[in-house]
Write a structure and sequence with these properties.
This protein has an 8-stranded mixed β-sheet with strand order 1-2-4-3-5-6-7-8, sandwiched between helices. The protein is 38% helix and 18% strand. It has 11 helices and 8 strands. Helix 2 crosses helix 3, helix 3 packs parallel to helix 9 and helix 6 crosses helix 7. 48% of the residues are buried. The protein has one domain: Alpha/Beta hydrolase fold, catalytic domain (Rossmann fold). It is of the alpha/beta class and 284 residues long.
C-alpha cells in the first residue's frame, strides 16, 4: 500500500492529508471526530485502499494539521478546508465518511459542495443535540470551570485514556498509543472551539433534516453500546429517504477501531454502487 503524507496550505493554517491506494481510483474522504486524527481510520484503510483512493484529513487543530489559537473552528469552516484540500488534490467527486463530529463536517461539506460528494457514510454521528449522553471524564477535563486549561496541561497518558474511555465499549479493547499521543498534541483551545462548533451546528438544525434536503445516498453505522450518543437516536436517520441504518451489536462509539471487519462488512457493499467514477465529469 502506497502512502503519501502532505501538508496543504489552507485558510487558517496547513492541513495534513494522508493518501492511500491508486490515485486513479474512486475517491473516499475519511474525516475523524473531535480530538481524533487520521490514525482513527488505520484499521480499515488497508482493505479500502486496495480498491479506492483513500484520502484522510486531519482537521484544523488536530493530528499533524496547524493548531492556531484564533477563530476558524466552526463546522462549516472545517468543511470548507476539507473541500479546499480535495480541490488541491484534484479530487472532483468523493464519498464522504465521517466519524462522530467528522460526520457533521461531512454533512456541512455536502451542503456546501453537493457536486463534490456523491454519498455519505456516518459512523456514530449524533443526529441532534438532545441525543447526547455524556463524554464523561473527557468533558470534565475540558470544561471544568476555571481549571480546564490547567488540567489540560497536566494530563498524563492515564488521564487521556480515562477521557477516551467513553469512546470504546468492546471488552478488552486497548486504545493505541498513537491515538493517546494525538490527543496530547492538541491544544485546549482547538478542542473546546471544535466542540462548541459542533454544538452550534446541531442547534441550528438536526443532521437528518439537513441530509433529507440533500438527496444523497446515506449509510449510518451506530454502535449499540455507544456511551456518548444515545444509540436509539440512530433511528432518526430513517427520515432521510433511502437511508440505510445499521446498529452494531457489542460495539460502542468507535466501531472502525473496535471491530474493523464488522464495520467493513457494512461499509464495502454501500461503497460499491456509490463511489464516484473519477473519469466522469461531475455536473456543477
Amino acid at each position: 500500500m502506497t502512502t503519501e503524507n502532505l501538508l496543504l496550505p489552507c485558510d487558517g493554517g496547513d492541513i495534513h492529508v494522508q493518501q492511500d491506494g491508486p490515485r486513479n481510483a474512486p475517491a473516499l474522504t475519511l474525516i475523524h471526530g473531535l480530538a481524533g486524527s487520521t490514525h482513527w481510520w488505520d484499521a480499515i484503510v488497508p482493505e479500502l485502499a486496495g480498491t479506492y483512493r483513500v484520502v484522510r484529513i486531519d482537521l484544523l487543530g488536530h493530528g499533524r494539521s496547524a493548531k492556531p489559537e484564533g477563530p476558524g473552528y466552526q463546522l462549516p469552516e472545517h468543511a470548507r478546508r476539507v473541500g479546499a484540500a480535495l480541490d488541491r488534490l484534484g479530487v472532483r467527486q468523493t464519498v464522504a465518511i465521517g466519524h462522530s463530529t467528522g460526520g457533521l463536517v461531512a454533512t456541512a461539506l455536502t451542503e456546501q459542495r453537493p457536486a463534490l460528494v456523491t454519498a455519505l457514510a456516518l459512523v456514530d454521528t449524533g443526529p441532534r443535540l438532545d441525543a447526547f449522553i455524556s463524554n464523561g471524564f473527557a468533558g470534565r477535563l475540558v470544561l471544568a470551570p476555571g481549571i480546564g486549561p490547567l488540567l489540560w496541561r497536566l494530563r498524563t497518558d492515564g488521564l487521556i485514556r480515562k477521557a477516551l474511555s467513553t469512546g470504546f465499549s468492546r471488552p478488552g479493547y486497548q486504545v493505541p498509543q498513537q491515538i493517546v499521543d494525538d490527543v496530547r498534541a492538541m491544544t485546549f483551545h482547538g478542542s473546546v472551539a471544535t466542540s462548541q462548533g459542533a454544538v452550534d451546528y446541531l442547534k441550528q438544525r438536526p443532521v437528518p433534516a439537513r441530509l433529507a434536503a440533500l438527496g444523497k445516498p446515506l449509510l449510518v453505522l451506530f454502535g449499540e453500546e455507544d456511551h456518548r450518543w444515545r444509540p436509539s437516536s440512530a433511528t432518526d436517520y430513517t427520515a432521510v429517504p433511502g437511508a440505510t441504518v445499521k446498529l452494531l451489536p457489542g460495539l460502542g462509539h468507535s466501531p472502525m477501531l473496535e471491530d474493523p471487519q464488522q464495520t467493513l462488512a457494512h461499509l464495502l457493499p454501500f461503497l460499491e454502487p456509490h463511489a464516484p467514477n473519477p473519469k466522469r465529469t461531475p455536473h456543477p
